[in-house]
Write a structure and sequence with these properties.
The protein is α+β, with helices and mostly antiparallel strands. It has eleven helices and five strands; from the N terminus they run H-H-H-H-H-H-H-H-H-E-H-E-E-H-E-E.
C-alpha cells in the first residue's frame, strides 16, 4: 500500500473529486427520460463515499471500496450515460500495490466499462452518443491511468527502498572499516612487537658475552620501533593497503630474526591481483607467520603462491610440532573475516607441522543487502 497521504494532499484530492462530482449532480436535473434524480444523487454520494474509503482506509477495505466504485460507475454509465466516473476508478485501481488484486480489479473495471459503453451504444442513449468522442478518451484513460499510477507509486516505493538500502550500506561500510582498522592495528602491532621482543631477548642474552652484538640488536629494536610507529601513523591517516611483495619483505625480516629458515615460491605471480585482494592476502600472511613465530617451534617456514585460472591459493607451511587448536584468538577470526569479505576461505592442517591454505576466487560476488519488505496494498 502507498504511504498515507499528507493532510495537504488529502485536502487537494478531496477538493478535486468534489469539483468533478458536481458535474454529474448537475446533469441529474437536466435531461429527460432518465431514472429519478434522487436515485442518481444517492449513487453519486455512494461513489463519493467509496472514493473516500479507498483513499483513507487500509488494504483490504480499499479493495472493497474500489469494487463498490466500479459497480456504481457502471450503473451510472448505463442509467445516465455519464461514463467519466471511470477516471476516478482508474486512479484508485492504480494505487493498489499487489499484483493480484490490481489485475482482478483492473480487468473487472474494463469489463464493466466496455459493457456499459456497448449497452449505451445499442440502446441509442442520446446523451451518450452526443459525447462519444469524449467516451473514447475516457476509454483510453481507463486503460492507461491505472498502469501510469501503479508504476508511479512503484517508482516512489523503489526510491524509498534505495535510500534505505544506501543508508544501511553506509552503516555497514563504517562498521566494516572500524573492524578492519582494529584488526590491522592488532596484526601490525602484534608482528612488530613480536620482533622487538625477540631481538630484546637476544640482546639480553648477548649483553655479557657479546656486548657489541647486543648493542647492534638494540639498535635494530629502535629501528623496528620507529618503523612500527610510522606504519601505525600511515594506517590511521592514509589507510594505505599493503601489497604481497611488501609483506613478504616483512616476513623475511621477522623469520630471520627468529632464526627460522624462510622459503618463498612464485612471489611475482600475485602482482596482477587487485589492491583489495593483495591487502587481504598480505594481512592473512602476516597473521599466519606471526603464529609460526609465536607458537610453532619450527625451524623452517615455506610460503607458496599459486595463481590459477579461477582462484589464487596462498599456503604457509612450517615444520613445527603443530598447534591444536590453532589460533583460537583474534588471529584466526580476523583471517576468516577478511577472506569472507572477498568470498575466500582458509583451511588449516595440523598433521605434520602446520599448513595454512588461503583461497581467494578471482570473481567476487557480493550478496545484496536484504531490504525489509514493505506491506503492500
Amino acid at each position: 500500500m502507498p504511504d498515507p497521504l499528507s493532510e495537504s494532499q488529502k485536502r487537494l484530492l478531496l477538493g478535486g473529486w468534489l469539483v468533478l462530482y458536481l458535474i454529474p449532480f448537475y446533469l441529474l436535473f437536466h435531461g429527460a427520460g432518465r431514472p429519478p434524480a434522487a436515485a442518481g444523487a444517492a449513487l453519486l454520494l455512494l461513489f463519493l463515499a467509496a472514493a473516500l474509503g479507498s483513499a483513507l482506509s487500509g488494504r483490504r477495505a480499499a479493495y472493497l471500496w474500489t469494487f463498490v466504485q466500479i459497480l456504481v460507475s457502471g450503473v451510472v454509465s448505463i442509467s445516465y450515460g455519464y461514463v467519466y466516473l471511470a477516471f476516478g476508478v482508474s486512479y484508485f485501481i492504480g494505487r493498489i500495490r499487489r499484483r493480484g488484486p490490481f489485475s482482478v480489479l483492473y480487468t473487472l473495471h474494463l469489463l464493466v466499462f466496455f459493457g456499459a459503453v456497448n449497452y449505451c451504444t445499442l440502446t441509442q442513449h442520446a446523451f451518450f452518443l452526443a459525447q462519444f468522442p469524449f467516451v473514447i478518451l475516457t476509454l483510453i484513460g481507463a486503460i492507461l491511468i491505472p498502469f501510469n499510477t501503479y508504476f508511479r507509486y512503484k517508482r516512489i516505493e523503489l526510491q524509498k527502498l534505495l535510500v534505505e538500502a544506501n543508508r544501511r550500506i553506509a552503516e555497514l561500510v563504517i562498521q566494516e572499516e572500524r573492524q578492519r582498522i582494529s584488526r590491522d592495528l592488532h596484526d601490525t602491532l602484534g608482528q612488530k612487537l613480536s620482533l622487538i621482543g625477540l631481538k630484546s631477548e637476544l640482546a639480553d642474552k648477548l649483553v655479557e658475552s657479546r656486548p657489541a652484538k647486543a648493542q647492534l640488536e638494540m639498535r635494530e629494536v629502535q629501528t623496528v620501533a620507529r618503523s612500527t610507529l610510522k606504519e601505525v601513523q600511515e594506517l590511521v591517516s592514509k589507510m594505505r593497503g599493503t601489497t604481497v611483495r611488501e609483506e613478504v619483505a616483512h616476513v623475511r625480516r621477522i623469520l630471520g630474526a627468529a632464526e627460522i629458515e624462510f622459503l618463498c615460491e612464485d612471489e611475482a605471480s600475485l602482482n596482477e591481483l587487485s589492491p583489495l585482494i593483495q591487502n587481504v592476502l598480505s594481512m592473512c600472511i602476516k597473521e599466519a607467520v606471526t603464529n609460526v613465530v609465536k607458537h610453532s617451534g619450527a625451524s623452517r617456514c615455506r610460503l607458496r603462491m599459486e595463481h590459477r585460472s579461477a582462484e589464487t591459493v596462498v599456503t604457509v607451511e612450517d615444520n613445527g610440532g603443530g598447534r591444536e587448536p590453532w589460533g583460537q584468538g583474534n588471529g584466526l577470526v580476523g583471517m576468516k573475516e577478511r577472506l569472507d569479505f572477498v568470498n575466500g576461505k582458509v583451511e588449516i592442517d595440523t598433521g605434520r607441522g602446520t599448513t595454512v591454505r588461503m583461497t581467494v576466487p578471482h570473481i567476487i560476488k557480493q550478496d545484496p543487502i536484504p531490504c525489509e519488505k514493505r506491506n503492500e496494498r
